[in-house]
Amino acid sequence: MCKILVLLLFSFCFFVTNAIVCREGYTLVNNKCIAFLPPYHNSGYYTSYDQCNDLGGNAVSIRTAIDNTAIAKLAINKGYLDKIWIGLECWEDNNPDDCIWADQQGNASRYNNFQPGNPQIDNGKCVYMIPSTGKWVSEDCFSSSITIACETDIIGACTHKFGDYCYHPIIGRMNHDEALNICEQMCGGSLVSIHSPEENAYIHALFNDPSIYIGAKMSNSARNYWSDGTNWNYDNINFSNINDGQCYTMSRDDGKWNSRGCEEYLSSVCKWKASSECQATCTGPKYREETGLITLLTHQLSYIQYRGVPPCYYVLHVPNGSAAIWFDSIRLDSKSSIEVYSDTGNSTPIAVITSENEYSKGSITSSGEFIKLVFNQCKDNCDVTRLYWWTAHFGMNYGARCGEVLYTNGVITSQNYPNNYPNNYNCTYYIQNPSGTRPMQIHFDHFETEENHDFVNIYNQQSGVLYYSLSGNLYSNATYILDALCQSVRIEFTTDGRNTFSGWSASFNPWYY
Ligand SMILES: *[C@@H]1O[C@H](CO)[C@@H](O)[C@H](O)[C@H]1NC(C)=O
Ligand SMILES: *[C@@H]1O[C@H](CO)[C@@H](O)[C@H](O)[C@H]1NC(C)=O
Ligand SMILES: *[C@@H]1O[C@H](CO)[C@@H](O)[C@H](O)[C@H]1NC(C)=O
Ligand SMILES: *[C@@H]1O[C@H](CO)[C@@H](O)[C@H](O)[C@H]1NC(C)=O
Ligand SMILES: *[C@@H]1O[C@H](CO)[C@@H](O)[C@H](O)[C@H]1NC(C)=O
């Protein structure tokens, strides 16, 4: 009796402290978050499928009878009594082996619930479910007026627990920064940090990919650190490739960590403390070092629809430099704002960005090594009818330090900016593409020089080809995306002996679509 009571108490605590959350509008059924999206423009399965993808989901994949029944019941509860697209496409009559699930994780041979005589390709390659019976029927993919069952990830489900931490594998195709952002929105987690051989073995058993990102990174000063800010007290580095890149991956073969570039698209593992943090509105500060991307949100999902738990604020640190932040893309709702501070305390913000002034999204530079960024997100009666997001980069403010070779994200300016630049002046910068694989983007926040006299020339440093020769006032036509093959550019600023203007300020970083 006593034992049972203790057990019950335990499971109750477990239930309370591991908040399992679906995004707004989605319902949790059997560890899946499901929403039914009514026919989109009445143009069939593929259009609805794309709409579900745009919301960060995928047409539902059903692998057990329990899931099938649960989804059928949910559809009925929500009033969808007719037909429901599921994420299955078939290529051969009466052969579920040749039906492929939308999550690309296999076919319907192990479980299916086809109505006798199906799949029937003459009727179409797509498949709907009849909620009242749970049976599956083939249908023309362009058949209109069918609702789709859209499935998204659970936020904060502690499906893999080791010690006091939850682990969540993210399968597939994100670069290091993108994966880190997703992890930060899972109960304020981060890419996994590893502190013992046992923990390393546990992570190693979680995935099948040849290699995955872990949270280990090497700074420009060759110091290793964890992206969650914990101590570097254990490592399993493969020392034969120590200088191949700044991010570490774990190998499937033996769990060794290999140094790799940060721009490859790989799977990864998130980690967060298995406490009640998921129920909080924010989860403590997030510390990031040197350079990078921070964002709410990726995947075209509005931060309003996404009920992950973001960090309370970000602290961005650019060692030995002046820190700068710039927004690549931003659309705020009228009830949210972003405050930017020059230090980690509660001084006066150096900038407050709202929906009123977001168009003036030039770079914001700190007087010191730190920037603190606070996102005050709309809490009540938020506008859910439009998409809202922001993405920002941070890096070094190099200012007007002529002759320098720059390796990482940052901001450069003309001499004396925003005051007038000198006459008879010549300054050259060399910028190495910070990503090996992505095109480089140079964005001029401001550009005003004497037209046809004072030039900014952008060259491919290897081939010598002149990409752009800029002068005058660029107004808003100021983003230049250089081709991915260009690994190094030279930027020359030359002025003649007469007339000066306020000059220019430019941020550069890898280009994200
Ligand atoms: C279907 O999946 C099973 C394993 O789940 C696999 O053995 C089989 O080869 C697959 N069939 C096809 C046609 O891909
Ligand atoms: C260690 O690095 C070397 C060189 O890149 C590579 O050939 C080898 O496979 C790596 N070892 C493991 C266990 O990943
Ligand atoms: C910062 O500068 C000092 C002095 O120049 C140098 O010793 C130190 O290594 C630098 N630290 C980093 C992280 O670059
Ligand atoms: C500016 O300086 C660079 C490097 O010293 C030189 O190659 C270039 O010819 C100079 N340009 C002008 C217009 O003086
Ligand atoms: C913007 O810049 C591009 C590239 O330099 C140029 O081709 C285009 O004509 C410019 N557009 C406007 C409106 O100035």
UniProtKB/TrEMBL annotation:
Keyword Transmembrane helix listed? The answer is no
Name all CUB domain ranges. Answer: 401-511
Q: Does the keyword Membrane apply?
A: no
Where in this chain does the record put each C-type lectin domain? 29-141, 162-271
The family database entries (Pfam families) matched by this protein are listed as: CUB, Lectin_C
Which N-terminal residues, if any, form the signal peptide?
1-19
| Keywords assigned | Disulfide bond, Signal
Q: Give the InterPro entries listed for this entry.
A: C-type_lectin-like (IPR001304), C-type_lectin-like/link_sf (IPR016186), C-type_lectin_CS (IPR018378), CTDL_fold (IPR016187), CUB_dom (IPR000859), Snaclec (IPR050976), Sperma_CUB_dom_sf (IPR035914)
* SMART domains assigned to the protein according to its UniProt record, in alphabetical order: CLECT (SM00034), CUB (SM00042)
The protein in question is named Uncharacterized protein
Q: What is the species of this protein?
A: Caenorhabditis angaria
- Organism phylogeny: Eukaryota, Metazoa, Ecdysozoa, Nematoda, Chromadorea
